[in-house]
Structures are given as C-alpha cells and as structure tokens.
Description:
2 copies of one chain form a homodimer.
Chain A lengths: L4 H18 L6 H8 L6 H4 L3 H15 L4 H7 L6 H17 L1 H14 L3 H25 L5 H20 L15 H11 L4
Amino acid sequence: MARNPERRAALVDAGVAVLAREGARGLTFRAVDAAAGVPVGTASNYFTGRDDLLRQIDARLHERLAPDPEVLAGLMRRPKDRSLVTAFMHDLMARATRDRDAYLGLLEMRLEATRRPELRASYTKSVRADLEEGMEFHRDMGLPGGDGTVAVLYLAMLGLILEHLTLPDVLEGVLPGVAVPGGLIERVVETIVPEA
Amino acid sequence: MARNPERRAALVDAGVAVLAREGARGLTFRAVDAAAGVPVGTASNYFTGRDDLLRQIDARLHERLAPDPEVLAGLMRRPKDRSLVTAFMHDLMARATRDRDAYLGLLEMRLEATRRPELRASYTKSVRADLEEGMEFHRDMGLPGGDGTVAVLYLAMLGLILEHLTLPDVLEGVLPGVAVPGGLIERVVETIVPEA
Lengths: 196, 196
C-alpha cells in the first residue's frame, strides 16, 4: 500500500465526487484516478479493493459533514430552549446543502449498502453513532424533549434533507408562506419538539 | 415503436428490478432485456431512449406503491381520529417493505434526478401529486391536524422508510421497548399529529 497521506485524502475526496456525480455503480478505481487527475493505477495502490475505498469514503463523509466547532461553540452560549434546537437544525441543513456532494454520497452509500452486506454493517455503525451522539448532546444540553423527540426529529430532518437535495421543488409552496427549507425547518421543530 | 402492452409492462417491471439491484447507472436497455428474458434489442423497440424508459418506470412505481382500494375502504369505515392516521402510516410502510424494489427504485430515481434536469421536472410532478393528494385526503376525511401536520408527517415517514429500507439496524433498539418500524411509526404519529 502506498502511504502518501495527502494523495490518499485527495483520492478519497475524488471518490466522493464520483459517487455524487455518477452513482455508486460508477465508482471504479479508474473513475477515481481520472477525477483526482492522477495516473491510471494510482487508486489501486492506495486501497485494497472497492469495499476498502467505500469504507474510507464513509469515514470521510462524516468528517466533511460534521459541525464546525466554532459554530457549535457559538450556539452553545444561547438559552437551551426550542429556538436553539431550530438553530441546530438550520446548521444541519446548511452543512448538507453546502457540501451537497458529501450528502449525496451518503445517500448513494445507503443504496449501495442494500446490495453489499459487508458495507451495511460498517455503514450502520457510523450512522447509528451520529444518531446516538445527537441524542446524548440533546440530553446533556438539557434541551426540551426526550430521546423519542430526538428520534422523530432525526427522521423528519432526514426526510427533509433527502427531499430538498434531490427534488427541491416538491416542497416549494406546499405550505403557503412557508419558505423552503428554512420555514419548513421551523415548522418541523415546532411540531415535534415541546416548548420546554 | 412496438406495441405489445404486456411486453411493454414486463420490460418496465424488469427496469424496476434492474434499478433496485444495480442502481440507476446500471439501467441500460441491454440490462433490461436480460432481466426481462427477451432478446437483446427488444427494449430499444419499446422506448425512445433511456429517459423515456425512466419516465415509464416512474409512473409504474407510483402504481405499484399505491394503496390497495380494499384496504383503504376498510380503513375509511373507522373513526376519523389519530389512531386512523397511525393505521394509514402502517399501511404506507407495509407497501414500501412489501414492494421493496419499487421503493428502492424511487430512491434511485431521486438520485438520478440530481444528474438529469429533464427527469427532475417530471419526477417532481409525480412526487408532488402524491403529497398533495395526501393533504387533500387528510382534509376531506376530517383527520386531526392541518396541512402543516401532514407535511411534517410526510417528511418523518420519508426519513423512516429511507432508514428502514437501507440501514434497518440503525433504529433497532434506539428507543428501548419501541419496535422497528411498527412502534416507531406510532411514536412518529403521536409526536406529530394532535389528538383531535
């Protein structure tokens, strides 16, 4: 295995771009080499196989979509009420739309997981860890609502991000006067999270 | 264009199977011919191109996932309260899990729509029609909650079905004593839909 860490990182990010642009089935070493602008055969020196590449992409996607520590720190100074939950959800949506390729990559990985049980296990672990972290954070911060609230909020945001990234016009104007996605996020939080 | 309607239907359903199994990028006329067990070249006599095939698959997916009129009629005899909303959501999940290929096909189409603007327009129309129909139905039946409730419920169920079909173990045991997906559906409805 080749060990240049910058090149490995560039190849993994090229893999994310290929995944978003071509779909999981388009993710070949050759396509990754081309997207990274490196000689054919390079990717095969960095990954033991396609599953290895997919697992490294998975880890990278969670990194790229993680909250910015400074934004988080700023938000954490605010009162621990429902409007703070709304602010966190706005930040989640902002991260997904800002790094659209990464979020589309996550969705492609989900569909690829239905076809590859080995991938499903490791991918389940990373998505589950994100969900549990969210629940723990909500609890530790003393935000309104219990684990059930967080689980339902998680599902509604998953649906909203999926819809907004793939078919943005479906939700446009569906609730008069409610902007997409901002106003809809507020509606989601107000509906699901208790006031205090 | 060839006009044998049974053969056309068989080719479209073969396309759904290819989409679920291979992903959007695997959907070629050759793969459809193979999945349908017909001679190479058959699909090209039935569809003007890949976009035409995708549009016919889209229409077929909505047909395959539509509620059973008898089940619907049975449910509509019940009191118009929140527990009826739960029953409708159980039925929605049952349809998605029973015809898993069709629902995975919808997800593949969403991702394909991010790459093909022509497809996005027609696909947006069919998904939007489903959502508006759901809102109208909820209103006409006098079920509890307004359009905002239905929109948030729609998003949470979209997230739940996506999670359950692609990474079912993520939600397993996340809320102690809440079965997946049944108990979680109940939790979603109780959280989002007002009691009356």
